[in-house]
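Appendix B. One record, verbatim.
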Amino acid sequence: MTSDDAEPTVPNPATAEPTAVLPTAGAPDGNGSAAGPPLTGLTPPAPGAGAMPLRTPGSDSAYRQTNGGLTNGPTNAALTNGARSTSQRSFGRPEPQQQTFRPVYQGQAWPTEQPQYRPAYVPPPPADWHQQQARSYASEPQKLNRVVTIAGLVALVIGVLAGAGAATAVVALSGNDTPIAQQPEPPVGTGADPKIRTGSVSAVAATLLPSVVQLKVEGSDNSDATGSGFVIDNVGHILTNNHVVAAAAKGGSIQVVTNDNKTATARLVGRSPAYDLAVVQVAGLTAPSVQFGRSDQAVVGQDVVAIGSPLGLAGTVTSGIISAKNRPVTTGDDPAEAASYISALQTDAAINPGNSGGPLVDMNARVIGVNSAIATVRGSGEGQSGSIGLGFAIPIDQARRTAQQLIATGKASYPVIGASVDMTFEGGARVSAVSPSSPAARAGLRVGDVITSINNEPVDSAEVLIVAIRTHQPGEAVRLAYERGGRSRTVTLTLAQQIG
């Protein structure tokens, strides 16, 4: 290193060779003058001789690299001239720099404590430093839960079950090869936009209650039933469950009680046991129509409201969430009719006998389901059935199509593959019979084949297969995976239709 302002290399006292005479202190300095008499190895240094001068307090030299460019100190890194010091920080006290040591006489001990520079002036932090720190530690505000004030609790003894179902041993899915004609689509669920944006249960209830009615049914065989329904157009059509009005299918009467306590007689327009839906009509009904939402856009956890007449208590409002979707549910207790298979919305909103046929609505007051059934504790008998937080609703996307068919023709169709499945088999849907010339027969399905998936969705029971098929429409193509003799196979078939 030839630069005059470069610091000398620090010698290691453990390996340095002894020197008889060190360079004289009287050598010419930068001004060419002598500083004093020569020093020998036996001459003690003059006071202050060889000591490193301290930097001037208040200077900024602690924040700057020396002008020598590269240094060879024991701990110094190679830095270019003018580079930022490795010990410099954004603000606050700089880290101490290790000082170099130049022995003045032979045997001089290394100093045990290096001089420390502590500047008297510390640069202040930025003016908004506290705000910056506060923002970095600030957490998002917690969302407040809606609080619903409960006026009173009424203990009710439940006597009947809404839509409890019993599975049959074998369900025949016979095909119908008649051409599938396009049905007219009467406008339903096109009421005025509720324009509810507050997410308030009370606002949803105030909007929907005028559209919800109570049904009182008397059959020709002295059977009776009560349930709920809601207005779906401006000509008095009301959507409800089939099991609510089934008693009047062969004679009897259906009375409709509106929210303002007006009673009128309704006629049965049509019903679909396969989907557990029915439509009745009241001439001159002035109740407003509801607006349909989209059940396929419902998400687990979203808030919902159920409205109906549980145990004959008209205008009852309960709230909860969607706790599951696509839940396979079987309903129907009439041995003379086929069971209903529903890919249901599951909710914990309280649903009790009498809620059947009432609407399940989102927080924008749009109907997304038709309340149809509840789960009960196994072994509970009559007088003990009631809500346990597991209610099921028919998705409104399916209910809309069925209601349009019933209004247009009085009947509704549902899709079939043209085969029967064993309801007692577990681990798939085992084919027990195949109808001739049906989609299943044309696809090559045989008795004993075990269907394991439909459109890549697993099938672990006969109920799951039937429910999955009924989420489609006649004429649609589905892909089935099945096992035969230990080998997996796949086939695509087009769904036929059946009336019911």
